[in-house]
What we know:
Elements: E1 3-9, H1 13-23, E2 28-35, H2 42-55, E3 63-65, H3 79-82, H4 104-114, E4 120-124, H5 129-137, E5 145-151, H6 167-171, H7 173-180, E6 186-189, H8 191-194, H9 201-208, H10 213-233, H11 243-250, E7 255-260, E8 262-264, E9 275-277, E10 289-295, H12 297-308
Parallel strand pairs: 1-2, 1-4, 2-3, 4-5, 5-6, 6-10
Antiparallel strand pairs: 7-10, 8-9
Helix pairs in contact: 1-2, 1-10, 1-11, 4-5, 5-7, 9-10
The structure holds alpha-D-ribofuranose and calcium ion.
Amino acid sequence: MARKIIIDTDPGQDDAVAILLALASPELEVLGLTAVAGNVPLPLTARNARQICELAGRSDIRVFAGCDRPMKRELRTAEHVHGKTGLNGYDLPDPQTPLQDTHAVDFLIDTLRAEPPGSITLCPIGPLTNIGTALRRAPDIAGRIAEIVLMGGAYFQVGNVTPAAEFNIYVDPEAAEIVFKSGIKLTVMPLDVTHKALTSRARIEAFRDLGTAVGAAVAGWTDFFERFDIGKYGSEGAPLHDPTVIAYLLRPEIFAGRFVNVEIETLSDLTRGMTVADWWGVTDRAANATFMSDIDAESYFALLTERLARL
Length: 311
Ligand code: RIB
Ligand code: CA
């Protein structure tokens, strides 16, 4: 029985690779994609999500547009990392599939109420605005969600958009606070993990050597995406953040982490969006998240390449 998931996304080249990995994996049943404003504005993330599904030959996947700005803050985007379209690096044809009429938040609520409790895993890989809004509007769904596996936050790696905060959490800290205080089973892929999953020339060429449109697209996107991080960190390659969420569903054994308390800074301007992880157990705050810290990067990229070859 395939695991039912909903991917909440702000594509984004790394989001695109995560979506392709999910669509290439029969262990997973993607009930839909919910687009959110993040890397680029909502009209673009909703467009990109449909283009990615069509690249995978999966125009049957329903794409829902969600919130076009954070719950309480102005939207902050990241074109400087992802380019103007959010998918710079490889051009895809205009999407043919229409957006669903239903708002993403209504799709989340209706689907969670309709499906058996505990049968759906949510996979947010962008700002948590859609998820936070759904939980605020329909608190009853919290008990029906099997698990939330999200990309966001940082502890040892600290911030990427500010010295203190990772982008997804920074953009909508209030939404993140709702998620982290929801009591839902939570598995977090922070920068502490993703910064150990760096692209390299060999890893990108392995995508290109697939000889398929998907391989060419992923190679083009990662070539484009890595230039920013290499310039910033002086590293050999760029962290391929979002596919870690899907890889965890497929191969949890390639990850390691710790069940700790994680709380979100929402009051300070200086540390807004910081994921304050009690990694050393110095408080009596109850643990609420499995916060990942290690990944077997070789296995991660081997999984990615093997699965993308199937598309
Ligand atoms: O900080 C990395 C995260 O922000 C990734 O999800 C990337 O796609 C951007 O949304
Ligand atoms: Ca993302």
